[in-house]
Amino acid sequence: MISFKIATQAWGVPLLVGLAAGNLAAQSAALDFDEHMALGLVAADTRDPEGAGDHFAAALALDSTNYQANWRMASALIDVGKQTPDDVKSKERDSLYILAEVYARRAVDAELLQPDGHYILAAAVGRASLTKNNKERVRRAPEIRVEALKALELDPEHDKAHHVIGLWHAEIKRLSGIQRWFAKNLYGGDFLDLASWEQAEEHMELAVAIDPAVIYHRMDLAEIYFDRKRYSDARPQLQAIDSLPVFDVLDPRYKARAAELMTEMAGKEDGRD
Fold it and tell me: What is the 3-state secondary structure (H, E, C) of 201-247?
């Protein structure tokens, strides 16, 4: 699935530079930084994260400290990695998330007051956390919250940062009583008390309000409503997904999940199973 190859730059940080063989490799030598960035953005917008990563890697080879190239590279790596489900063991996916964190941290270092860097760092840490054990998830959870809130401090209308923090609240509230006890008493998870369903709903609703065309905003909001037995609120979100255009690499899966959840909710009344 993944066309990237991992190489090591002279400055000692892993960089994905595996430009496709043949024409793309030949063309890349003649392209400058701005051209690679432009082509990377086109690839990202057309659901080709591997191609986007190739061009962002080439741009970074020309300017390794560029803010846009670093956070865009992190985003491309996440989009490649997330196509492998979290519950499937995959060293390849996990290595992509590790690299995504590297580039996200470089983006934050390059431009501390830009929201996208903080957002993509929260997203990278969050994605990687889903593949780790409970102790490691608890250890990493505070950073996800801090970085997402920093992005919102810099841009209150950042829909993706609202999504991250909304999901942060939801995932914690989905923990069982036993899981919460272990997290708090063995792993130092006192911050778990900060999580609430109200905050999960509020932030995910804001994400949908800011960009209603994003399928995964509506999907995760519907899942939250479902968990809260607010079925009459979940149904309109799921119904809207059916007619929305596909932008994200996982949008086809989200559409399929939306149809499944609609079937699962058939006959259910609010507050009751």
Answer: HHHHHHHHHHCCCCHHHHHHHHHHHHHCCCHHHHHHHHHHHHHCCCC
